[in-house]
């Protein structure tokens, strides 16, 4: 009745939903521990960083739909630019700035869904995307696709952020990487 891919997606969604409910708790604490490797497992695990970022994204969507109104594109971009600056500064401090800048230069090249949104746009030396250009392109692309500009931006900027976090993580010490993820997650939940 379900293909393997559909079953995996359903299991993944279930795990994310459970984890998200933990993040909604206002009291208590939880700790992520390194996973045990079991050669008998046949279902791939969910990376903690990806799980945290997906939950942060969902929490952001919940907040946007609640009191306070819709997300503004300018606010979304400003929040993500803050995260991008933090990722690059952390990589610079760890000696991985050039590797991250190289990855940032090509972050949208292989993403057909976002290629037209970011055509001719590049990250600045500090790690920011130019506000006016991004907002202009986002407005045009969103209108052409018939989707809200906020949704388009959130999806594209989240994709870029996760990619840059992944690349940075390859070059950072585990403790530095964990601290970076915690800061970025905290910033993402306040968009």
Low-pLDDT runs of 5+ residues are 66-70
Shape verdict: globular
**Strand segment count:** 0
**What is the helix fraction of residues, given as a range?**
55-70%
Search tags:
mainly alpha, 8 helices, 191 residues
Please characterize this protein's 3D structure.
With 191 residues, the protein is mostly helical. The chain has one domain. Helix content is 64%, strand content 0%. It has 8 helices and no strands. It has helices at 4-23, 48-65, 73-93, 97-105, 112-115, 131-145, 149-169, 174-188. α2 (48-65) runs parallel beside α8 (174-188) and α3 packs antiparallel against α8 (174-188).
Write the layout of secondary structure elements.
Elements: H1 4-23, H2 48-65, H3 73-93, H4 97-105, H5 112-115, H6 131-145, H7 149-169, H8 174-188
Helix pairs in contact: 1-2, 2-8, 3-4, 3-7, 3-8, 4-7
Write a concise synopsis of the structure shown.
By secondary structure, this protein is mostly helical.
């Amino acid at each position: 009745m379900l293909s393997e891919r559909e079953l995996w997606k359903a299991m993944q969604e279930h795990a994310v939903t459970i984890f998200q409910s933990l993040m909604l708790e206002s009291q208590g604490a939880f700790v992520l521990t390194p996973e045990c490797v079991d050669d008998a497992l046949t279902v791939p695990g969910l990376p903690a960083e990806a799980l945290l970022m997906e939950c942060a994204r969902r929490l952001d969507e919940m907040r946007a739909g609640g009191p306070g109104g819709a997300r503004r594109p300018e606010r979304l971009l400003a929040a993500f630019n803050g995260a991008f600056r933090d990722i690059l500064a952390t990589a610079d401090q760890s000696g991985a700035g050039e590797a991250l800048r190289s990855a940032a230069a090509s972050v949208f090249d292989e993403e057909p869904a976002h290629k037209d949104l970011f055509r001719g746009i590049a990250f600045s030396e500090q790690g920011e995307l130019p506000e006016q250009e991004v907002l202009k392109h986002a407005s045009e692309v969103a209108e052409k696709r018939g989707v809200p500009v906020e949704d388009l931006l959130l999806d594209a900027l989240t994709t870029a952020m996760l990619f840059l976090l992944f690349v940075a993580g390859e070059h950072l010490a585990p403790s530095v990487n964990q601290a970076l993820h915690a800061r970025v997650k905290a910033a993402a939940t306040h968009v």
